[in-house]
Amino acid sequence: MEIIIPTGDATGSDWIQFHKDLRGKFGKLNANIIWLKAWETRGDETFTMDSDFNEYFAKYDIDVSNMATSLIASISNIGNDLFGIVGTAATVWKVGIIVIPVGLLIPIFILLFRFSKSITPTDITNVLAAKGGIPVQL
Question: pLDDT digits over 23-79, tens only?
Fold first, then answer.
């Protein structure tokens, strides 16, 4: 289902339909928060004079005729921003915990693999003999 945010030329019924669509997809609480934020940025105060408009939103605990509406929208936006930052930091942390060690271990394994392919048993005995570890017959 596509939800369309009302624009400047929207009617009161467009705003009501927008809220209904949000409620159907996100539930009452989230719908109210999203609707209030959209109303804060795009709403037309002339609709608040319409009693049907006010009654509809009063049923869902939204008082569009009250200046507190914009305050609630602002507070909910701050909360959403905070949770967004915390969520992003947690995601970065979770990914970093895995990616950084793997990113460091892969080059080490590649070097060890290449080194192990180029070394021969003679090389090992020569190194050990040079250190005095094993006698070498000449």
Answer: 999 999 989 989 888 888 888 777 777 888 888 988 998 877 664 444 555 555 555
For 30-61, letters b (16+ CB in 10 Å) and e give: ebbbbbbbbbbeebeeebbeeeebbebbeeee
Please name which of 47, 81, 77 lies closest in space to residue 63, comparing C-alpha atoms: 47
DSSP string, 19-65: HHHHHHHH-HHHHHHHHHHHHHHH--GGGGG-HHHHHHHHHTT--TT
Enter the pTM of the model.
Answer: 0.47
Residue 4 carries which side chain, given as an amino acid letter?
A: I
**Long-range contacts from 52-57, C-beta under 8 angstroms, 24+ separation:** 52/12, 53/12, 53/15, 53/16, 56/16, 56/19, 57/16, 57/19
